[in-house]
């Protein structure tokens, strides 16, 4: 603190009737910046003087100067000399020219009235005066000063670097005391994927966004993480939310783990036959996404087609609680709402993040070993296995048998898509011999999208990302020696066909039932509104009749449109493939 400067400032203010000069030392300015106090009141001055005295006792001059350089105002919302250097010149302070250095010297004295992007002339005059002072003090040569004074002040204000915004923000929050934080992110790949995902936003509805996560599953290092494809200013898409960490419904993306457990437990093999027919578990009647039933097919086909009934039938034998334990062993953190896990967890009835799903698939790619993904370089953890090598390889072999669009060597990439209830979340997760990639598409606020399917939104982007990540392509690992690779006929008898336990009540054993419209219903006639008939039970295919007239033959869906119906009374009948029937009489008026 400088008492002589205070006396001078007080005398000048009294003589001129206004403030002519300041009496604050650098330490007092730091005190004001730290407490964000006002400079015009004597009460504020006294507080700053007290804080300045404490700073002088506790800190060195170098530390006080460092505080000033990181908190000084440079116009607008810019604080600190490093931020100002990037905002006005786009580079680190150590790379500044004499002209640029002089401008930053004078800006904190009048940060608003000397802003070069608004008041270039005032900024130029103050800069030139500072250059002359610096030359007088011997810091710059007269030739350097003359050259610097001839340079015009740049009127542009640059945007701050926002590459990997969410990852860097989280890293800073987790390490507040570190001056420099090294991340595993590949800056070139990160930049390309941010540009690619931002371009893909044009194909989505206005409120939708997407997130991308890329990792090396052999090391667990995250190579790219796009928390939101939208720019940070896009409030409509809520780009400030890191959607790689947001908890959402995984849809069908968890089905591979159910099958891997079934292989491990000796319940099934990829060549095992399984029945895709109507089933009932108490009050739970699962159905396939398209409402159709395929009958008897191989387990590998059931996974490739992402059928719901076969995976639910397997999970009923495995047990939802055991499945949840295995999920946690893979390194993810599932979130259950409502307590106990039910059969619906296989279809997305559990909360997971994109980070969680990529972690799970990284473990499958590593032969069933749990992988910890991180943006920090860490020593590898001891091996923790959540499924066998053989089961993990079998899952990869099944998932890689379906071509992935936009990928150069699509048959070498094991991938799975998933669409959650109400089209809220579209997922595509895939891996090759080295990399694992995850894509999520949806609305950040959790509201449904308009009929968006993962195969149309997330899967094409997944293929493009693999073109960026692995242009040379690393093949999947060969099967471990213990893997049983045989045809269905060569399997042991218990594995040739999966049979549900006796306690399972199959709807196929019941006669068909017309769920809607119920018998006795009275419906309003509408030329634009078709009558939707909903069925339950029985054995497809079905035949549908209305007043004895054939409406549909060979139906395998549980729902069918009968088209607009005229006014009158109708006797509806359904007959299944075994000859059992159901009837309902309705009135349309």
Q: Any chance you could write out the topology, listing elements then pairs?
A:
Elements: H1 3-16, H2 26-35, H3 42-58, H4 61-71, H5 81-89, H6 98-106, H7 120-136, H8 142-149, H9 165-174, H10 187-200, E1 208-216, E2 221-226, H11 255-264, E3 273-276, E4 295-298, H12 299-304, H13 308-318, H14 320-329, H15 354-365, H16 389-399, E5 414-419, E6 425-431, E7 435-443, H17 454-469, H18 493-496, E8 513-516, E9 522-523, E10 532-536, E11 542-546, E12 549-555, E13 559-561, E14 568-575, E15 581-588
Parallel strand pairs: 9-15
Antiparallel strand pairs: 1-2, 1-7, 3-4, 5-6, 6-7, 8-10, 10-13, 11-12, 11-14, 14-15
Helix pairs in contact: 2-3, 2-4, 6-7, 7-8, 10-17, 11-13, 11-16
Family: In the N-terminal section; belongs to the glycosyltransferase 51 family.
Domain Glycosyl transferase family: 2-134
Protein name: peptidoglycan glycosyltransferase
Describe the structure.
- This protein is an alpha+beta fold and 589 residues long.
- It has three domains: 3-149, Penicillin binding protein transpeptidase fold; 251-488, Beta-lactamase (3-Layer(aba) Sandwich), CATH 3.40.710.10; 507-588, Immunoglobulin-like (Sandwich).
- It has 18 helices and 15 strands.
- It has helices spanning 3-16, 26-35, 42-58, 61-71, 81-89, 98-106, 120-136, 142-149, 165-174, 187-200, 255-264, 299-304, 308-318, 320-329, 354-365, 389-399, 454-469, 493-496, and strands at residues 208-216, 221-226, 273-276, 295-298, 414-419, 425-431, 435-443, 513-516, 522-523, 532-536, 542-546, 549-555, 559-561, 568-575, 581-588.
- A five-stranded antiparallel beta sheet has the order 2-1-7-6-5, with helices on both faces. A five-stranded mixed beta sheet has the order 9-15-14-11-12, with no helix packed on it. Strands 8-10-13 form a three-stranded antiparallel beta sheet, with no helix packed on it.
- Residues 1-23 and 502-508 have low confidence and may be disordered.
């Amino acid at each position: 603190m400088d008492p002589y400067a205070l006396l001078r400032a007080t005398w000048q203010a009294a003589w001129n009737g206004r403030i002519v000069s300041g009496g604050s030392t650098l330490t007092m300015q730091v005190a004001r910046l730290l407490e964000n106090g006002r400079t015009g009141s004597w009460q504020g001055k006294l507080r700053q003087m007290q804080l300045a005295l404490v700073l002088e006792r506790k800190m060195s001059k170098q530390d006080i100067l460092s505080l000033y350089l990181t908190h000084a105002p440079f116009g607008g919302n810019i604080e600190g000399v490093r931020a100002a250097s990037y905002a006005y010149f786009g580079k680190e302070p150590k790379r500044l020219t004499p002209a640029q250095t002089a401008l930053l010297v004078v800006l904190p004295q009048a940060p608003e009235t000397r802003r070069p992007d608004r008041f270039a002339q005032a900024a130029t005059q103050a800069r030139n005066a500072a250059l002359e002072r610096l030359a007088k003090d011997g810091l710059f040569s007269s030739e350097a000063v003359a050259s610097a004074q001839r340079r015009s002040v740049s009127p542009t204000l640059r945007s701050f670097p926002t590459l990997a915004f969410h990852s860097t923000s989280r890293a800073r929050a987790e390490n507040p005391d570190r001056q420099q934080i090294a991340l595993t992110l590949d800056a070139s790949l990160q930049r390309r994927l941010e540009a690619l995902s931002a371009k893909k936003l044009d194909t989505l509805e206005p409120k939708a966004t997407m997130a991308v996560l890329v990792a090396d599953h052999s090391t667990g290092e995250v190579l790219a993480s796009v928390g939101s494809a939208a720019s940070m200013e896009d409030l409509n898409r809520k780009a400030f939310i890191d959607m790689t960490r947001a908890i959402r419904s995984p849809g069908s993306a968890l089905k591979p783990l159910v099958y891997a457990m079934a292989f491990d437990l000796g319940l099934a093999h990829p060549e095992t036959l399984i029945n895709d027919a109507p089933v009932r578990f108490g009050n739970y009647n699962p159905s396939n996404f398209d409402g159709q039933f395929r009958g008897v097919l191989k387990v590998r086909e059931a996974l490739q087609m992402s059928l719901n009934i076969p995976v639910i039938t397997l999970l009923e034998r495995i047990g939802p609680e055991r499945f949840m334990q295995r999920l946690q062993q893979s390194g993810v953190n599932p979130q259950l709402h409502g307590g106990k896990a039910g059969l619906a967890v296989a279809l997305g009835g559990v909360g997971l993040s994109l980070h969680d799903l990529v972690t799970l698939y990284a473990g499958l790619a590593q032969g069933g070993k749990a992988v910890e993904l991180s943006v920090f370089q860490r020593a590898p953890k001891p091996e923790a296995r959540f499924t066998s090598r053989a089961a993990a390889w079998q899952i990869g072999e099944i998932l890689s048998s379906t071509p992935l669009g936009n990928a150069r060597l699509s048959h070498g990439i094991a991938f799975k898509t998933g669409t959650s209830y109400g089209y809220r979340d579209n997922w595509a997760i895939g891996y090759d011999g080295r990399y694992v990639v995850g894509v999520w598409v949806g609305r950040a606020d959790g509201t449904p999208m308009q009929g968006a399917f993962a195969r149309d939104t997330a899967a094409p982007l997944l293929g493009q990302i693999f073109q960026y990540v692995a242009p040379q392509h690393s093949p999947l690992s060969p099967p471990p020696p213990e893997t049983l690779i045989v045809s269905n006929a060569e399997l042991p008898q218990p594995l040739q066909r999966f049979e549900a336990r006796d306690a399972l009540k199959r709807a196929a054993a019941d006669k068909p039932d017309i769920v809607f419209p119920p018998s006795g219903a009275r419906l309003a006639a509408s030329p634009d509104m078709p009558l939707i008939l909903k069925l339950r039970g029985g054995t497809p295919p079905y035949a549908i009749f209305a007043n004895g007239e054939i409406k549909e033959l060979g139906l395998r869906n549980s729902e069918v449109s009968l088209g607009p119906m005229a006014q009158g009374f109708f006797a509806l009948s359904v007959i299944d493939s075994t000859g059992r029937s159901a009837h309902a009489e309705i009135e349309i008026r």
